[in-house]
Amino acid sequence: MRAEQQPIVALTAYDYTFAQAVDNAGVDVVLVGDSLGNVIQGHGSTVPVTVEDIVYHCQCVARGLDRALLMADLPFLSYADEATAIDSAGALMKHGGAQMVKLEGTQDQAAIVEALTIAGVPVCAHIGLQPQLVDKLGGFKVQGKDEQSANRIVEDACALEAAGADLLLVECVSAPVAERIRAAVNLPLIGIGAGVNCDGQVLVLQDVLGITQGRVPRFSRNFMPQGQSIPGALSAYAEAVRARTFPDATECFE
Ligand SMILES: Nc1nc(=O)c2c([nH]1)NC[C@@H]1CN(c3ccc(C(=O)N[C@@H](CCC(=O)O)C(=O)O)cc3)CN21
Ligand SMILES: CC(C)C(=O)C(=O)O
Ligand SMILES: [Mg+2]
């Protein structure tokens, strides 16, 4: 799809009925995200989410998909070493039905990605803002704001590609930093809060449907006013990603 300049539409889902709705809207990649810690479980972060939680929601979502690729997040500390990562990925794929796993990382996780790759696990490397590190970072902030940290994220992308990652996802970086990452790799780059010049976009389902209570990340968009109904909002999101009308300038970082 990157080669054909066909934007990749990705969205989270956590249950059977919404998986069907998201699949019917023509979404290409459905993510069982650890954001379920926030939007399903009501935690303040993704830190408490377990492999078992993701497996359960994957099982529910898998039964609702007909066309989309099923990607699942490896939760915090479920890939801290190679053996643990392989066990965790095995659970998501064998019990959950996931077709690809996603892990948050930098070049420091290259050996983990390589071990998963050698074992035959399709991997998406999630770079830039790593929400699982919120207690270390002290908040959800834009990453790569100075030259040195931007260079470091580009290096992360290259190292994770070299380690065998199949897909990259970048969160919360400026549009120019996302463009630098994309230019440095051959893999498709899916963005969230990373500007319009990525190979695809991903958002959290509840944000797209406008039902997230409290503060919503600035880079997300409520498609319910435009779509008028759940199926309408999901189709409007897919269409906006494909037309590159999402994200707009107000939904990006400088
Ligand atoms: N509902 C929901 N949507 C998400 O996108 C999401 C979750 N939950 N939970 C897991 C992570 C956490 N994420 C977040 C949460 C907050 C910001 C945020 O408030 N960012 C600031 C940036 C501030 C700055 O440095 O300028 C923003 O204004 O968007 C970003 C990502 C993304 N993920
Ligand atoms: C927001 C996406 C990228 C994610 O990792 C999640 O939903 O957990
Ligand atoms: Mg996640």
Automatic annotation (TrEMBL):
SUPFAM superfamilies (alphabetical): Phosphoenolpyruvate/pyruvate domain
Catalytic reaction equation(s): (6R)-5,10-methylene-5,6,7,8-tetrahydrofolate + 3-methyl-2-oxobutanoate + H2O = 2-dehydropantoate + (6S)-5,6,7,8-tetrahydrofolate
At the top level of its lineage, which domain of life is listed? Bacteria
* Keyword tags: Cytoplasm, Magnesium, Metal-binding, Methyltransferase, Pantothenate biosynthesis, Transferase
Coiled-coil stretches are none
Q: In which pathway does it act?
A: Cofactor biosynthesis; (R)-pantothenate biosynthesis; (R)-pantoate from 3-methyl-2-oxobutanoate: step 1/2
Q: Which Pfam families match?
A: Pantoate_transf (PF02548)
EC number(s) recorded for this UniProt protein: 2.1.2.11
Q: List cellular component terms (GO).
A: cytoplasm
Named cofactor requirement(s):
Mg(2+)
Co-factor binding details: Binds 1 Mg(2+) ion per subunit.
Return the similarity comment: Belongs to the PanB family.
What name goes with this protein? 3-methyl-2-oxobutanoate hydroxymethyltransferase
Q: What is the lineage of its organism?
A: Bacteria, Pseudomonadati, Pseudomonadota, Gammaproteobacteria, Chromatiales
